Amino acid sequence: MRLIVRSLGLTDYVPVWEAMRGLTDSRQKNTLDEIWVTQHNPVFTQGQSGRSENIIDPGDIPVVLSDRGGQVTYHGPGQLVVYLMFDLRRMDLNVRVLVSGIEESIIDVLAGYSIGATRERDAPGVYVRGSKIGSLGLRVRKGCSFHGLSLNVAMDLEPFDRINPCGNVDLKMSQVKDCGGPSDLSVVAEDLIDRLSSRFQFTSLDHRKGIGDSLVA
Length: 217
Fold this sequence. Notes:
The chain is an alpha/beta fold. It has helices at 13-26, 88-91, 95-112, 185-199, and strands at residues 2-11, 33-40, 43-46, 63-65, 72-75, 79-85, 118-120, 123-128, 131-141, 144-152, 204-209. It has one domain (2-209): Bira Bifunctional Protein, Domain 2 (BirA Bifunctional Protein, domain 2), CATH 3.30.930.10. Helices cover 24% and strands 33% of the residues. The N and C termini lie close together (10 Å).
């Protein structure tokens, strides 16, 4: 299978979200699957199951009510964000298999940096010694996924103290750099795309920069 991988650089959340929805709504059966790689300017996003009381003190950081699954989280520079626009019907995947494949891909990448990470039952994401290092938030429409994952690499973690991350009062956050891994997002992004493409059996990667018209096979 062929996969388009788009490198977007540092972006605002809302325009990328709108572009994801646009691609998903306009997909045809022969529209190629895409992965978008980005970092976002500082923003809190509240998922569909989020509660306002979990946003404690946002300060000057904007809050966006998103249509992804999950609760509140923070995005900012130094955090790797990967969006997966997959046709799940064509790939014969259900959401549970997609989520576990994403989590296992992150765990595999971290293992390559000698970071022992785990999954937790009933708490989607990836954890290192009880602290959360990778988060997931997905949406499926017309059998196709959008939104995706965030992996804390080398960022300012302070804004997470202004919320209850994922609705959990006691949850602490960690990042790759502080666990002894690389701080270069481009290195981590390349490793993660390799794992994701292998996990989901993409055999041909078409690397592009920016958001453009989706290709058809």
